[in-house]
């Protein structure tokens, strides 16, 4: 493997952390949460403490419907971030993903920066991570295949493998991988042979319903719909391009800051695939999380706020997670929901731009527009 490319990957991963932690990299467009209103239940007939936040995800029980989203690995500072986040996942009974493991597949000396998560989280649901672009040949290197996918899984003794779909990022990244033809077949081959469930994961531009259905047909076990409304990888790569004096890349990144499907819309659309689903992209509170769960998500994923907290230290991560869980529990209580899946049966009102998106894309059906009258809640 080319040591120059390895160094470049390592440097890029460190720059991603630095830029994300210190710059304004959020989309300007919202995720759509403000347009979704859950209806207050004045007579919930349930105690706040009786709300049970636990959920099943890919055959495992989590204590709350939260995933610490894939972020990092591949350089020394990433090891510490991964260790802090993994301990939090273990303490709170959450799922956790690591960042793309390509760096360690190319340079096994970096494996420790990922493997630390299993050491610190012996029982948590852990998700390995590879990029779909790297499953086909690129200028940056040969295609990774089944052997590398298995190696990524065993590196962290993962319970699942996320294959990320990040062609927006690759399009803006100065050194990006832009060959996409053949990815679907490559994803199918990995899903058939890797031995753990595959999560197809967008990283901030969302999955259209038709794409979600195609992914299901490729053998994908779960979706992480990663929509617009949170961290913008177009901006992150645009800022990296700017630092390299690449004005064309900077302008493209800014132009595409809000490119994609808002998270609330992609959740509602992808629910038609009937797969377990993680809603990532701009989830910043327990109220956002409750809305995502009401629209059909199984879990919500959170990335940037937890990175910023992890850089402050362990206590800040705990504080952030405790607050989110407290908010989520309260919203379940106030909607009379005993568990996260019951939120799906609760009445809601959808207004504004989100409603227009849903309407024009044909996602506004009767399951989405529940009135709550006569709906029988599933048992929790
Ligand atoms: C610094 C950073 C690095 C990331 N690296 C990866 C990655 O390697 N693989 C991946 O699937 N997603 C990656 N993501 C995307 C996140 O998992 C998530 O989808 C996205 O940041 C949106 O969530 P947020 O709005 O809560 O930040 C990364 C995000 C951040 C902030």
SS-based class: alpha/beta
What's the gyration radius in Å? 20 Å
Q: Give the amount of beta strand, in percent.
A: 5-15%
Tally of structural domains: 1
Order of the strands making up the biggest sheet: 4-5-6-7-8-9-10-11
**How far is the first residue's CA from the last residue's CA?**
51 Å
CATH topology: TIM Barrel
Give me the strand/helix succession.
HEEEEHEHHEHEHHEHEHHHEHEHHEH
Keywords:
globular; TIM Barrel; single chain; alpha/beta; binds flavin mononucleotide; eight-stranded parallel beta barrel; 380 residues
Summarize the structure.
This protein has 15 helices and twelve strands.
Structure description:
With 380 residues, the chain is an alpha/beta fold. The longest helix has 21 residues, at 314-334. Helix 1 (3-22) crosses helix 9 (233-243) and helix 2 (76-92) packs parallel to helix 14 (314-334). 52% of the residues are buried. Strand 6 (125-131), helix 5 (146-155) and strand 7 form a beta-alpha-beta unit. It has an eight-stranded parallel barrel with strand order 4-5-6-7-8-9-10-11, surrounded by seven helices. The protein contains 15 helices and twelve strands. The model has no long low-confidence stretch (mean pLDDT 95). It has one domain (3-360): TIM Barrel (Alpha-Beta Barrel), CATH 3.20.20.70. The protein binds flavin mononucleotide. Residues 16-17, 20, 69-72, 99-100, 129, 162, 164, 201, 203-204, 226, 230-231, 280-283, 302-304, 307 line the site of flavin mononucleotide (FMN).
Helix and strand topology:
Blueprint: H1 3-22, E1 36-38, E2 55-57, E3 60-62, E4 66-68, H2 76-92, E5 95-97, H3 102-106, H4 112-120, E6 125-131, H5 146-155, E7 160-165, H6 167-172, H7 183-193, E8 198-202, H8 209-217, E9 222-224, H9 233-243, H10 247-255, H11 263-270, E10 277-280, H12 286-294, E11 299-302, H13 304-312, H14 314-334, E12 348-350, H15 352-360
Parallel strand pairs: 4-5, 4-11, 5-6, 6-7, 7-8, 8-9, 9-10, 10-11
Antiparallel strand pairs: 1-12, 2-3
Flavin mononucleotide (FMN) binds next to α1, β7 and α13.
């Amino acid at each position: 493997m080319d040591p120059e490319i390895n160094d470049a990957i390592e440097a890029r991963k460190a720059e991603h952390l630095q830029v994300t932690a210190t710059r304004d990299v959020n989309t300007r467009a919202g995720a759509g949460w403000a347009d979704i209103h859950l209806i207050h239940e004045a007579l919930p007939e349930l105690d706040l403490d009786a709300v049970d936040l636990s959920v099943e995800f890919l055959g495992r029980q989590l204590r709350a419907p939260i995933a610490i989203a894939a972020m990092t690995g591949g350089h020394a500072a990433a090891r510490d971030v991964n260790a802090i986040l993994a301990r939090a996942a273990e303490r709170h009974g959450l799922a956790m993903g690591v960042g793309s493991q390509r760096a360690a597949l190319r340079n096994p000396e970096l494996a420790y920066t990922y493997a630390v998560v299993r050491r610190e989280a012996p029982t948590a649901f852990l998700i390995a991570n590879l990029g779909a672009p790297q499953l086909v040949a690129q200028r940056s290197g040969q295609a990774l295949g089944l052997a590398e996918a298995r190696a990524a899984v065993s590196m962290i003794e993962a319970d699942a493998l996320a294959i990320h779909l990040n062609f927006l990022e690759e399009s803006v990244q100065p050194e990006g991988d832009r060959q996409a033809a053949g990815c679907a077949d490559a994803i199918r081959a990995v899903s058939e042979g890797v031995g753990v469930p595959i999560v197809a994961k967008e990283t901030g531009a969302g999955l259209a319903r038709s794409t979600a259905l195609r992914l299901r047909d490729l053998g994908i076990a779960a979706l992480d719909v990663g929509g617009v409304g949170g961290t913008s990888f177009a901006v992150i790569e645009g800022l990296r391009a700017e630092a390299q004096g690449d004005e064309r890349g900077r302008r493209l990144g800014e132009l595409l800051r809000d490119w994609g499907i808002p998270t609330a819309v992609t959740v509602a659309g992808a629910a038609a695939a009937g797969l377990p689903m993680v809603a990532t992209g701009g989830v910043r509170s327990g109220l956002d999380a409750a809305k995502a769960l009401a629209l059909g998500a199984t879990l919500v994923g959170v990335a940037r706020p937890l990175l910023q907290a992890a850089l402050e230290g362990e206590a800040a991560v705990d504080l952030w997670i405790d607050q989110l869980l407290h908010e989520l529990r309260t919203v379940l209580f106030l909607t009379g929901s005993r568990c996260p899946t019951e939120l799906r049966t609760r009445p809601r009102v959808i207004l504004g731009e989100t409603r227009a998106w849903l309407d024009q894309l044909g996602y506004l059906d009767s399951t989405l527009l529940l009135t709550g009258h006569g709906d029988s809640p599933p048992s929790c």
